[in-house]
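Data availability (excerpt). The following record was deposited with the supplementary files.
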Amino acid sequence: MNKLYRGIIRIFQMINYSICKRKFANRNNILSKLNLERLPDEIAREMSRGIRVNKQFPAGKTFFVNFEGEKLTIEVLYKFRRLLDNMDNQGTSGIDIYILTENEKYIWLETIAPSNDSQMYVKKVIYLSSRSNSLKFIMPSFAIVESILLSSYESLNVDDDIKIVAYGSSVTHGCAASRPGLNYLNQLSNICGCGILNYGFSESAKGEKKLLNYISMIPSKVFIMEYDHNVSVDELERTHKEAYRTIRKNFKGWIIILSRFSGGLSITLNEEIKRVEIIQKTFEYAKKNGDRCIAFYNGSKLFGDNKEGYFVDKVHPNDDGMTAIANMIYTLIQEEGMLD
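Predicted structure:
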């Protein structure tokens, strides 16, 4: 996908947005009742361009709607949509809808998504089998949604029960998942039945001290640190331990340290060994200094000898890869009783 095509599509997106915005004038936009911002401007303005751009996308943001009736009409207005070579429109811009079952589990119901690269307005009618329903909406990983209209609803709320905070790269952001609900953090949220804040930023996760200081002060029980991809070996060696120290200074719960999952594909096996050794040293440093709430998972072990089958582009996990990561972290959490 070349720059000329992206530029032309961006012009069509802007035109379509301007036209479709009229449909939403003076109507009840439910997003006006919600805060979907991932980082406040005062924190982001001193960060890298990658963070400033990607913090606008509501990756991992969810809200819940209680609805009475068997038919619900949903209208969505996008303000901006990013185009990526390794994701289609559903992956970058989809809004996943999950429904609460009788056994108190959310299962996937529908995905609302544009059908082409320039579409900025989507209307969807969903039909439900019962009259009283609880729905969970999972927002896009790489699109800015300006308005959502619902034909009716009884109540609207967000999950204030935040038990997990995650810091990471484009993998944590949700890059290459075929729809947002399949990002490993969103899967983990459904499995654990708790809120998770996603501070994964594409092109970032470079041990940004100010960012880590901010998010490590958010009350939660588990902090996931997926920090390996976007720095050189020398930078990782210089900053990884300090990143841990910054988190631990503020955060009293469990810290899960991850190394990358794509060694041998995105980097050579020799480089992977060097990176794992650096991250292992941080783990050993933490243990030596009395940290009993620290866990390390060597990502090179997760997919065995068939790594390529779990990736879209040798860097970003596909849906099977995302599911495997979610299940691995859930197992760690269960084994150590991290959420107890």
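Summary of structural features: The mean pLDDT is 96.
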